[in-house]
Amino acid sequence: MDRLDPTARVAAPELTGAEIVIRCLQAEGVEVVFGYPGGAVLFIYDELFKQDKVKHVLVRHEQGAAHAADGYSRASNKVGVCLVTSGPGVTNAVTGIATAYMDSIPMVIITGQVPTHAIGLDAFQECDTVGITRPCVKHNFLVKDVRELAPTMKKAFHIATTGRPGPVLVDIPKDVTSQTCRFEYPQVVAMRSYNPTVKGHPGQVKKAVQLLLEAKRPMVYTGGGVILSDAAPQLTKLVKLLGLPCTNTLMGLGGFPGTDPQFVGMLGMHGTYEANMAMQHCDVLLAIGARFDDRVIGNPKHFGQVPRKIIHVDIDPSSISKRVKVDIPIVGNVREVLDDLIKQLEGQPQKLDPKALAAWWAQIGEWKAKDCLRYDRASKIIKPQLVMEKLYEVTQGDAFVTSDVGQHQMWAAQFYKFDKPKRWVNSGGLGTMGFGLPAAMGVQLAHPGANVVCVTGESSIMMCLQELSTCKQYRLPIKIVNLNNRYMGMVRQWQQFFHGNRYSESYMDALPDFVKLAEGYGHHGMLIERPADVEPALREAFSRKNDLIFMDFITDQTENVYPMVPGGKGISEMILAEDL
Amino acid sequence: MNAPVPSTYPLPAAPAAGMRHIISILLENEAGALSRVAGLFSARGYNIESLTVAPTEDASLSRMTIVTIGSGDVIEQITKQLNKLIEVVKVVDLSEAPHIERELMLIKVRATGKDREEMKRMADIFRGRIIDVTETTYTIELTGTGEKLDAFIQALDKTAVLETVRTGASGIARGERVLRV
């Protein structure tokens, strides 16, 4: 090709590796990069300085960079990008990378590496980045030749965003960033070894439609795949079309409107009674973009005791029949498969047996009547559930909510009804405490004018607290809702139930004064101690559009999350508040 | 016995009876591809009985043969997980159909006195070739299935075996089935 067109090569400019990195980011339409500079990435930072298309957000710890890029991606349709230096820069980011990997979040992580000639010599700030991150990325690259840089960046973005998405890391030695070559950004990627299936098999789709229409007790169970493939409208259409009950996993909330009467709540370890019972007792289960993990179906043996037919739609074949055998696997992009299912269903004269469906809904209604999420509304101490309910009211259900990990995460998931996808941002797979605040930064940067709330606890928030400083620098008006019960609540709950009330190291002694702490970072803090003050405090906080407000709610220390499926039990074997 | 404390994790499944499988993989001949495969097996707790790898006639591709033991479910997961690796081009479970497998062993044995002639005879019986000779030792080259190599070692006087080195199995499908891009 080059020989035929000698001018083509001349036309391509000769750039340094660092310039190429930036040009690639620009070509991919990257607007924000979260990062922290260091020796191995100095050339790249120099090039960042010389342009203004790609904005850089300086975090205070590389873990924050990874979580922020992750949060940015989860709340938008864009790839989260982070940039860190070699050695400790990378190892600090690993928790964030693993978090994104477990939840299949498209991210590109650019890491500096010591110069190629120093690799393997235990150089200053050297670590085996591709080795360390290999098990927690979708793919990673070490670029040893500047001419490989642009094609590798192209591949990285392609791999991160296609198939089952995930983080992709590009490790670039410092000398590669200073060497030069002609720059041309590839338009397309062709990889013989990577061609994810997108379309579902038509025969399988047909079988699925037949099975669904014959169901007496149908159930739809969806997960993060619906969110990731932007399939919420399709899912809603399908569920409405057939009048099915629908449940979402923790990762799938917002995939189907939380306020819709056909929504039976989240399922799983802390799912609603009705969702778990319906899951256990349905006769045909349509699972979409979900993976039957241990937090969702509990003990698979117990789950298997009730005979039911399962249709499983997922882009990742390895997620199908991993923990639970399924009858009709459909590999493909959730959105495309749902489109096909809807098309076939719309052309079908046959409808679901209305009598059976009515009986099934009556049964679900009975389960619903248990009112499994009720709590003591007359309590004189603030109940965490009350804070979540009021948060929902005050934000009119339209906020972006991030969370950390623990009891507060479950209460947020149970009580904040998400009607839209990409509004609920939490670390479901890895369960990373410290995720909430930096993720909220990413969300706020993706949606500058929106209400962004970080629901957290006093233990979680302290794991990435330093990012309050980043929030100040970029004027991110995040509202932090700290459910402060002076315990690592979820650990304490398990210790209460299963370890004879021995609260081994789950108590947080010597907590900081969070109001002063927020003020120390240049933000506004509020201490809320009485139930009557909850709503006014939230209203005041959200009226201050431009300020980060740290709300420290002193909540009931003994409150537990119900319902609860103890580990190893079946999902219909829940502990309810009323049982105790 | 105390009542078991519920675990936050899923209960261990009863190990299903495992069968020996021989899995052939075509993968990009790139640095790190081998560690991705090896890392996958260790991270997910799969067995590796043996693993061999070398470039094919197309130098951009490597052919890997892994011998593993697992139940049907485990083997299904192994092939799915292998296919998920970006550098893996194709995966085939050779054990699903007629196939041939061969392994090469080099074995150094003591060959002195009356044992010297006996050793030569044993090598002949197993169709081995003596490829290095000293006054006191033979080095024998032997190819065959793993079972055949085992049988050869079994047939020798234990004290006569000085050193063995085996390649692990390589496999190929019988008939016209081929594994290529």
Shape of chain B: globular
Average pLDDT reading of chain B: 93
Low-confidence parts of chain A lasting 5 or more residues at pLDDT below 50? none
Question: Could you tell me the strand content of chain A as a percent range?
Answer: 15-25%
Number of helices of chain B: 4
Estimated structural class of chain B:
alpha+beta
What's the helix count of chain A? Answer: 24
Number of strands of chain B: 9
Tell me the Rg of chain A in angstroms.
Answer: 25 Å
* Assembly annotation: heterodimer
Question: What's the helical proportion of residues of chain A?
Answer: 25-40%
Give me the secondary-structure category of chain A.
alpha/beta
Provide the helix percentage of chain B.
Answer: 25-40%
The residue ranges of chain B in which pLDDT falls below 50 over 5 or more consecutive positions are none
Shape of chain A: globular
> Largest protein interface?
A-B, 30 and 27 residues
Task: Please list the strands of the largest sheet of chain A in the order they lie side by side.
Answer: 3-2-4-5-7-6
Quote the beta fraction of chain B. 35-45%
Walkthrough of the structure:
- The complex is a heterodimer of chains A (580) and B (181).
- Chain A has 580 residues and is of the alpha/beta class.
- In chain A, 56% of the residues are buried.
- In chain B, strand 6 and strand 7 (137-144) form a beta hairpin.
- Classes of the chains: A alpha/beta (580), B alpha+beta (181).
- The A-B interface holds A 130-131, 134-135, 138-139, 142, 159, 191-194, 294, 299-301, 316-318, 321-323, 494, 497-499, 566-569 and B 5-11, 27-28, 31-32, 35-36, 39, 43, 73, 76-77, 80-81, 83-84, 86-89, 181.
What descriptive keywords fit this protein?
heterodimer; A: 580 residues; alpha/beta; six-stranded parallel β-sheet; 24 helices; 20 strands; 38% helix; globular; B: 181 residues; alpha+beta; five-stranded antiparallel β-sheet; four-stranded antiparallel β-sheet; 4 helices; 37% strand
